[in-house]
Amino acid sequence: MATPERISGPDVRIALIGAGTIGLSLAALHLTHLADASHLTIMDVRADLSSYVATVLPTYLPPELHKHVADIKLTSSVAEAVKDCTIVQESGPEDLAFKTQLWADVERLAPSHAMLWTSTSGIPAAQQSASMTDKTRLLVVHPFNPPHILPLLEIVPSALTSEAVVAKTMEFWRRIGREPVLLKRDITGFVAGRLAWALLREAIHLVDQDVVTVEQLDRILETSMGPRWAYAGPFKSFHAGGGPGGLAALLGNVGRTVQACWDDGGRVNMGGSWEAKVFAQTEEAYGRVDLGERDRANRLVLEAVREAKKA
Question: What keyword terms does UniProt attach to this protein (predicted)?
Answer without folding.
Answer: Oxidoreductase
